[in-house]
From TrEMBL:
GO terms for biological process: lipid transport. GO terms for molecular function: lipid binding. It comes from the Eukaryota. This is Non-specific lipid-transfer protein 3-like. Pfam families: LTP_2 (PF14368). Coiled coil: none annotated. Residues 34-119 form the Bifunctional inhibitor/plant lipid transfer protein/seed storage helical domain. Residues 1-29 form the signal peptide. Keywords: Signal. The gene is LOC116189191. Belongs to the plant LTP family.
């Protein structure tokens, strides 16, 4: 019972964080909003937090590919990097899972997994 309560509580916290990021983000034509980026990866929650099977779901990969298509300029990829750099630690995302997402989902984009990644190096 206690374990189930922790899972439910974790999902509520994750949901509130997503809502907070979405409502505090401002979208422009030149930048991907952090809220849009996180929303695209909501199907990846269990995979990125390490609470599911060792491979991402097809829905997760679909969301990741959608995010990759939105990040079609250097500026957008760097904004995406900054978003993940700032939010990943607070969500409890596992860096090894982030690093493996491009391989499993056949992405060409680099997703930073470390909190102090130099986003200016994103091509």
């Amino acid at each position: 019972m206690a374990l189930g309560g922790k899972k439910i509580c974790g999902k509520w916290v994750f949901g509130f964080l997503v809502i907070a990021v979405i409502t505090s983000s401002r979208a422009t034509a030149d930048i991907i909003s952090c809220g849009d980026a996180i929303a695209a990866l909501i199907p990846c929650e269990a995979f990125l937090l390490g609470s599911s099977l060792p491979t991402p779901s097809s829905d997760c990969c679909s969301g990741a590919r959608n995010l990759e298509s939105m990040a079609n300029t250097v500026e957008k990829r760097r904004a995406l990097c900054q978003c993940f750099e700032q939010t990943s630690p607070s969500f409890g995302v596992k860096p090894d899972r982030v690093n493996s997402l491009p391989l499993y989902c056949k992405l060409k984009i680099t997703l930073p997994a470390e909190p102090h990644y130099d986003c200016s190096k994103i091509p």
